[in-house]
Amino acid sequence: MENFFSLDGKFFRFINKFTSLIALNFLFIITSLPIITIGVSFYALYQTNLKLSQNTESYIARTYFFFWKKI
Question: Which residue, among 41, 12, 47, has the nearest Cα to 28 in the 3D structure?
Answer without folding.
Answer: 41
